[in-house]
Amino acid sequence: MTTAVRPTAAADWRALGTSVRLVTTDPALLDSCNLLLARHLAEVDATCSRFRADSELSALDDSDGRPTLVSPLLAEALAVALRAAEATDGAVDPTVGSALEALGYDRDFTLVQEDDRPVRLSVRRVPGWRRIHLDRATGTVTVPSGIRLDLGATAKAWAADRAARTLARAAGCGVLVSLGGDTAVAGEPPAGGWRIRVQDVTGPAEAPPAQGPYATIGLHSGGLATSGTAARHWRRGEHTLHHIIDPATGLPARTPWRTVSVAAANCADANAATTAALVKGPGAERWLTGLGLPARLVARDGTVVTTPGWPAPAFPVIGDEPVQPEGGPA
């Protein structure tokens, strides 16, 4: 008796300033799932964007420290961000908004790259996530005057988690949602799991990268995220900057790692761990090991370090079955 390999279908486009990839195990449901995904991401953008003057998040800039009623969607996004800050001992902190603006990251990234005006770098600790008070019972949030929030370290991964769960329930099939490499899966996976290529260089899913190490693994549930300092970097004057901020200095993190990939129970947790690992720098692999998170860290010289649970190349699987050589997204 043989088991037929379930077919998959994929759609690729852009939203939230990044790449979007949707894969379903039922090709007939791809278009309807893609429509639902587009609506979901539009809601997230209108709620959480730091670059839209009309977003709900931007409106908090004028709250002057008053408790402000927020939508359930923003309350959920803020709760995820604050939980990530607590879980990473503050290495991931949503109060980095002003620090990013001071570095020139104050608009969509494609526009940031076109601006090379010099900036003056100064060490200044960010205000700190503990100053943000979210009251889920009343649906209010208090942001002290002068603090600008940025949910870039958590919102895309949280949106991927939320979308994958919603689409899988609605469609009754397996779903993969990837937002700029933050990948969440839900529903019944393809045989052998979702085949996902982890790599240093951003590129199309169809072909392996021309340079840099990469690995293909199988993911059965939860989420997988990769963060790095090379995908979003820009020059301002004589400085080359990137978007991973060290809350202790308010400046781009000085890290020995160029990329970190982590698998976790959900994509939001995975992405918080990858960002924190870049900020923590040396010893990040021990921190990830202590949390029991399978991870792959690539040093600046290309050396690859993995933690227990990350699959060896000869048996690339995170889950309970080996990856088949064909099928699923790359």
Can I get a quick summary?
The protein is an alpha+beta fold and 330 residues long. The protein has helices at residues 30-48, 56-59, 72-87, 97-102, 109-112, 155-171, 267-280, 284-290, and strands spanning 9-15, 18-24, 68-69, 133-135, 140-142, 175-179, 182-186, 194-199, 214-219, 222-228, 233-236, 239-242, 245-246, 251-252, 257-264, 295-299, 304-306.
Describe this entry's structure for a reader:
- With 330 residues, the chain is an alpha+beta fold.
- 26% of the residues lie in helices and 24% in strands.
- The protein has 8 helices and 17 strands.
- Strands 1-2-6-7-10-15-16-17 form an 8-stranded antiparallel β-sheet. A 3-stranded antiparallel β-sheet has the order 3-5-4, covered by helices on one side.
- It is globular and about 55 Å long.
- Residues 314-330 have low confidence and may be disordered.
Low-pLDDT residue intervals, each spanning 5 or more residues: 314-330
Structural class: alpha+beta
Number of strands: 17
Strand content: 15-25%
Main pleated-sheet profile: 8 strands, antiparallel
Shape: globular
What is the average per-residue confidence, as pLDDT, rounded to a whole number? 85
- Rg is 20 Å
* Amino- and carboxy-terminal Cα gap: 28 Å
Total helical elements: 8
SSE succession: EEHHEHHHEEHEEEEEEEEEEHHEE
Biggest sheet: strand arrangement: 1-2-6-7-10-15-16-17
Determine the fraction of residues in helical runs and give it as a percent range.
Answer: 25-40%
Keywords:
330 residues, alpha+beta, eight-stranded antiparallel sheet, three-stranded antiparallel sheet, 8 helices, 17 strands, 26% helix, disordered C terminus
